[in-house]
Amino acid sequence: MTDRLLVLVRHGQSDWNLKNLFTGWKDVDLTEKGVTEAREAGRKLKAQGLIFTVAYTSALVRAQRTLDLMLAEMGQSKIPVIKDQALNERDYGDLSGLNKDDARKKWGEEQVHIWRRSYDIAPPGGESLRDTAARVLPYYLTKILPRVLRGEHVLVSAHGNSLRALVMVLDKHTPSSITKLNIDTGVPMIYRLNADSTVKSKVDLAA
């Protein structure tokens, strides 16, 4: 039987994750911990014996570098890598670059929580999760999913919210339940799909 494999990984810890800043489309690099997380993700995937056909990542360096480090650990650096901003993190607009605690002092705990976790309420000048899904899901359906359904093994290195948009569909979350989902940095999620694109199995390689 064809193994329809899709592996999703959120990038390792970034400089702005560490500093508690809203990052969004700001192009920041990994911390030392983030590099370690990326390498460990690669080792975990190698231990599973997974061989990938193609990899996808965003236009942002933290996801690209995570992917490079994972592929290096697996000895698979020569596979095709496709980069597209459709997989970018959610755009936090006016919040980008602000400390999350400072934002709470300015707008209030409840308002910042709504911006961060609601499905369809966007921060000023930015994207809601629904907006993010509106660019991530068409890209997944037209570019990534057809390759998985052909039996190719696909690795995606992206971001907390772009992956939440995908997981919402794969795991059949509602707009309410997705607000409670957090995706950890550097933890591979291994999906095997049925021929109709539904999920056959999921394994989370948490530590």
Task: Note down, in words, how this protein is organized.
The structure is a single chain. With 207 residues, the protein is of the alpha/beta class. The protein has one domain: Phosphoglycerate mutase-like (Rossmann fold, 3-Layer(aba) Sandwich). It contains seven helices and six strands. A six-stranded mixed β-sheet has the order 3-2-4-1-5-6. β2 (54-57), α3 and β3 (81-83) form a beta-alpha-beta unit. α6 (129-149) crosses α7. The two termini are 30 Å apart. The mean pLDDT is 95.
Topology (SSEs and partners):
Elements: E1 5-10, H1 15-18, H2 32-47, E2 54-57, H3 61-74, E3 81-83, H4 100-107, H5 109-117, H6 129-149, E4 153-158, H7 160-170, E5 189-193, E6 199-204
Parallel strand pairs: 1-4, 2-3, 2-4
Antiparallel strand pairs: 1-5, 5-6
Radius of gyration: 17 Å
**Which spans of ≥5 residues are poorly predicted at pLDDT below 50?**
none
- The number of helices is 7
Q: Please state the average pLDDT score.
A: 95
Q: What level of helicity do the residues show?
A: 40-55%
What is the CATH topology?
Answer: Rossmann fold
Strand content: 5-15%
The rough form would be described as: globular
Give the total of domains. 1
Notable traits:
alpha/beta, 207 residues, six-stranded mixed beta sheet, Rossmann fold
Give the gist of this structure.
The protein has one domain (5-204): 3-Layer(aba) Sandwich (Rossmann fold).
